[in-house]
Amino acid sequence: MLLDVLREDGGAAVELATALYTAVLQRAPGVWRFLYSSWNRLPGLNALRTSWMTRRFRETENAVRRFNPETILTTHPLASAIAARMKRRDGLWARLVTAYWDWHFQPFCCFPEVDHYLVPLPRQREAFIAAGTPPSRVTVSGILVAPEFRVSVPRMEARAQLRLPEDRPVVLVLGGGRGWGLEPLARSIVRLRTPISAVFLCGSRERRIRLERLVAGLAKGAVEIRLLGFEANPAPYYHAADLIVSKPSGLSPAQAFACGTPMLAVSPEPGHEEANLVEFTGCGAVLVPRPSEDPAAAISRLLANPAALAAASASARKLVAIDTEAVALAVLAPVMAVETAVK
Questions:
Q1: Across the chain, how many H-helices and E-strands are there?
Q2: If DSSP codes are grouped into helix, strand and coil, which group holds residue 74?
Q3: By C-alpha distance, which of 91, 74, 57 is closest to 1?
Q4: I want to staple 248 with a disulfide (CB 3.0 to 4.6 A). Which of 39, 98, 184, 277 is the partner?
Q5: How confident is the model at residue 341 (pLDDT cuts 50, 70, 90)?
Q6: With contact defined as beta carbons under 8 Å apart, do 301 and 86 qualify?
Q7: Whole-prediction pTM value?
Q8: pLDDT above 70: residue 256
Q9: CATH topology of domain 147-317
Q10: Pairing of strands 223-228, 116-119
C-alpha cells in the first residue's frame, strides 16, 4: 500500500501550511534557518513535531488501521511523526522503518518509536548513534533510488529517445516539486552565448506556463529552451544530460549521482538544503558557482572543463554505490521470515 499523507488528508489547512512554509523560505529565510537549527532549544517545538502537527491526519490513520500492516516504511518526517504517534498513543504494533531523505543529520526527524533507520551516509549513522540510537537500528543504505536511474544508458541513445539535439551540450534544470529558483535560472540561462539545449523540469503545468511567459519576454542568446511540466519518468532526461543544474535537495541529487551525470548545485532552500550542500561540497560530489558567479557563467565554465565534470561525477557515484534494495530488504528480513514461517 502506497500512502501519500498530504493527499489523504489534504485540504485548506494543508494548503495554508504549505503556503506559509513557502512564504517563510522566500521572504524570511533567516527565520527558517533559526527554527531549523534551534527547534530542540525552543519551548513547545518538540510538542509541535510529536503531537500538534499530526492530529488532523485522521484519514491517514484510518487507512493505516484498515490495512493493518506488519511494517511501515516512511520517507518524510510528517509520515514518521504520524506513525510514531499512532504507535505511542494507539498501540500500533507495526514495525516502523524510516528511510532518511536528506544528506545531513537532523534530530527533529528522530522519533523513539522508529524501529530502524535507513540513512544515506556513514556520518549520519554516527550522528544517530551519538544521539542515543542503538547501532543495530541504523543501516547505511544510501537514498533509495529507482532502478531506471542506476542503469547505464548511453547519452546519445537517451537523446535520440527524447528527440534532443546531438550537436550541442544538454543541460537539465531542476527546481523540485515547487519549481524553486527556476525563474532566476531561466533569466540567466536564456542569455547564454554558449550553444546548449536547456531542458527545464518545472514540476507542474502551471509552473511551466509561467516560465513560458517569462522566457517569451526575454532576449535570447544561443540557447534552445525546452520547458516541461510534471514528468512521471524523468530518468531519460538525467541520462541525456551533460550537466544537471539543481538545488541540493534529497532525491534529485541522488538520482543524478546514480546516473553518473555531474551536478551544479544552486539556489539551496534555507536550512536543510544548505546543510546538504555542506555535505556535498565536503566530499566533492557537486560543483558550485564561484563567488559572485552567475549560474549561466558557471555552466559555460564547467562545460568547457570535462575533467572537472568527470571528477565530480566519480565522487558522487560513491554516495550511491550501495545496492539499496538489498540493504532495505535485509532490514525487513526479520518480518518477512516470520510471515513465511506462519504461512
A1: 17, 9
A2: strand
A3: 74
A4: 277
A5: very low
A6: no
A7: 0.89
A8: yes
A9: Rossmann fold (3.40.50)
A10: unpaired
What are 198's strand-pairing partners?
171, 225
DSSP code at position 218 = S
* pLDDT, greater one: 47 or 276: 276
Which among 206, 178, 56, 218 is positioned nearest to 198, based on CA atoms?
Answer: 218
Residue partners of 126: CB distance under 8 A and separation at least 6: none
Q: What's the rounded Cα separation, in Å, for the pair 262 and 302?
A: 10
Q: Which of 18, 15, 82 is nearest to 52 (CA)?
A: 82
The per-residue pLDDT for range 159-199, each reduced to its tens digit, is 999 999 999 999 999 988 777 889 999 999 998 989 999 99
Cα→Cα distances 339→74, 177, 259, Å = 21, 37, 35
Say which residues have a Cβ less than 8 Å from residue 109's Cβ, sequence separation at least 6: 77, 80, 98, 100, 102
Q: Which pLDDT band holds residue 321 (cuts at 50, 70, 90)?
A: low
C-alpha to C-alpha distance for 98 and 180, rounded to whole angstroms: 26
- Measured CA to CA, the distance from residue 52 to residue 39 in angstroms comes to 14
Instruction: List the domain boundaries for the chain.
Output: 5-142+322-342, 147-317
In this structure, the number of other CB atoms found within 10 A of the CB of residue 107 comes to 13
Work out the pLDDT band at 338, boundaries 50, 70, 90.
very low
